[in-house]
Design a protein that fits this description.
Alpha-Beta Plaits; five-stranded mixed β-sheet; elongated
Length: about 425
């Protein structure tokens, strides 16, 4: 073959002749692409005709399946030869089977990645060599196997296994860098790997730690908020306890907020013209809660906790866009209409938690009703049900007669 042939299997399928992508003709044949991909995945293994037929014609019936397979192979070889003369020879006929041959001048990123993973996992590979191979791996692993291509079940298990091996190699590389205190390179490695797996908590934690260790606590805080958004919007859950606890390390490193009562008072007093409630991350909210509970026990007084939840009018979960819009609008109303001594945190994707230090059952429910009216007045077209409950944090004082915890009815009922 004249030009070097480079076959890409990671993220998307593509064939390059030299530097130009040259698979346009082949991509017009869905079965032809699947045939090439399947043979490449089996890396030199003889694939029996019966297995190819079961894979490529799994949902179809054909009168003469052997003939259909031969016709497909002939057509694909012709298309490959149009991409590069002689490329059709990569599909090799065996007795009752076919396999993919790596011709001179051809490279396949999947094979390169598998070879690198084998070297990285070998017990006799030295630390420096393993690190060098990991760096090469991260250059090649641009996405999971065929993630942007039309996938059959025959891809999924292989893609998952390869992803697991890749992540294990990344973890090992990060550990090697940590032992050498190369925090700047850990930042680069974690950010590259998070492009592959956006929801890996360990990588997020390693990234934030490395940012703190390189005196970039502002970036670490931005990363933390990004993780919170990912969990709320796409997973519908809170981040792990470890992740939430890490917030305290970030703010301590950045000297932005010491987690004790006096500094929180200072934070609430900050800026003479600043009005409204204190909005914080849930990790800080829990610290404030614990500090306030100690004071309540000592003084024998009561503080009230309120929770507000939004959902669809039919009780079903909101889609991501409506949920984000509703929660953002509600937070703005809470921040600007509660008092400075009140504290707000997002407890879950659809719930805000509030600490209300100077209310009782009656005034607490009046506050929640006012927030509800403001929400619907400003967003009359929002197809959102607004629920709340208010209750004491201490049982030292009994509930006021006739004033049990309340739950609002959805808007319009």
């Amino acid at each position: 073959m004249g030009d070097g042939i480079r076959i890409q299997m990671m993220r998307a399928f593509a064939i390059y002749a030299g530097e130009a992508q040259a698979d346009q003709l082949l991509n017009k044949s869905r079965k032809g692409v699947a045939l090439v991909q399947y043979l490449i995945l089996n890396r030199g293994e003889r694939v029996p005709n019966a297995r190819l037929l079961a894979t490529l014609w799994s949902e179809e019936r054909t009168a003469n399946p052997e003939s259909a397979l031969k016709t497909l192979v002939s057509r694909v070889r012709a298309l490959l030869n149009q991409i590069c003369p002689g490329l059709g020879r990569a599909i090799v006929a065996d007795r009752g089977a076919y396999h993919w041959a790596v011709l001179p001048g051809m490279s396949v990123d999947l094979y390169q990645i598998e070879d690198l993973l084998d070297v990285i996992a070998a017990p006799d590979t030295g630390g420096a060599e393993r690190a060098r191979r990991c760096a090469e791996l991260m250059e090649l692993y641009t996405g999971d196997l065929l993630q942007d291509s039309e996938q059959g079940e025959w891809v999924l298990a292989r893609a998952a296994a390869l992803h697991s091996r890749y992540m294990a190699a990344v973890y090992a590389y990060v550990d090697w860098l940590k032992a050498r205190e190369d925090h700047a390179e850990i930042v680069n490695v974690c950010r590259a790997a998070l492009e592959i797996d956006h929801f890996d908590d360990r990588l997020h934690m390693e990234l934030m730690t490395a940012l703190v260790n390189t005196n970039r606590s502002g970036e670490a805080l931005a990363q933390y908020r990004h993780v919170m958004h990912l969990h709320y919007r796409y997973l519908g859950v809170q981040p792990s306890e470890d992740m939430q606890a890490f917030y305290k390390q970030i703010v301590r490193a950045g000297k932005t907020l010491e987690l004790n009562l006096e500094s929180i008072r200072s934070e609430l007093r900050e800026g003479g013209d600043q009005r409204g409630a204190f909005v914080c991350e849930y990790a800080v909210f829990k610290e404030i809660f614990n500090l306030q509970m100690r004071n309540l026990e000592r003084l024998g007084s009561t503080m009230f906790l309120a929770v507000i939840m939004v959902c669809g009018l039919d009780g079903e979960p909101l889609d991501n866009i409506r949920q984000d819009n509703a929660m953002a609008a509600l937070l703005d109303i809470l921040r600007n209409n509660l008092r400075k001594g009140d504290t707000i945190a997002r407890f879950s994707p659809t719930i805000f938690a509030l600490l209300l230090p100077t209310v009782n059952y009656t005034t607490g429910n009046m506050v929640m009703e006012r927030v509800k009216r403001l929400f619907y007045r400003r967003h009359p077209s929002a197809s959102v049900a607004f629920h709340y409950r208010v209750g004491p944090l201490s049982s030292e004082h009994p509930p006021e007669k006739g004033a049990p915890p309340q739950e609002s009815a959805p808007h319009g009922e």
